[in-house]
Design brief:
Elements lengths: L1 H8 L11 E5 L2 H6 L5 H15 L4 E5 L6 H4 L3 H4 L15 H14 L14 H4 L2
Parallel strand pairs: 1-2
Length: about 130
């Protein structure tokens, strides 16, 4: 608690901010669901995120898988901005999106896909 209070106290005040900081929390669902974290630790973490987000100095972004969304409801600060558009829900990628995710990095790396010897189907097609 003391460390959090000190960190928040040292943030620039909203009126003093010339440049903003950004914090990206990837895989928020791990913090929400893993047995490695106690409920108290989860609560402290979400309080810290809220304090940073409302400080005016830090833009807080996070990613959470859709199936863990019900866990967000237990933390009002994590869903508070939903009505104002603070959440951006992504639809599951379609076949064309998946093919692009597979092909473009391979293309950028100079790689190509073989074909299945039995069906002559390109292996990247079989991945989707």
């Amino acid at each position: 608690q003391q460390v959090i209070a000190r960190a928040v106290a040292n943030l620039p005040k909203a009126t003093q901010v010339k440049s903003r900081y950004a914090l990206f929390v990837d895989r928020l669902e791990v913090m929400l669901s893993s047995p490695l974290f106690s409920n108290d630790e989860r609560e402290q973490f979400t309080q810290l995120l809220e304090q940073l987000a409302t400080s005016g100095a830090v833009l807080v972004l996070s990613a959470c898988r859709n199936e863990f969304y019900p866990l967000l409801v237990d933390y009002p600060s994590l869903i508070a901005g939903k009505a104002k558009g603070a959440h951006f829900d992504l639809a599951a990628p379609g076949r064309a999106d998946l093919l692009q995710m597979i092909r473009l990095p391979a293309l950028a790396a100079g790689l190509s896909f073989d074909t299945d010897p039995d069906s002559a189907t390109p292996l990247d097609e079989l991945l989707c």
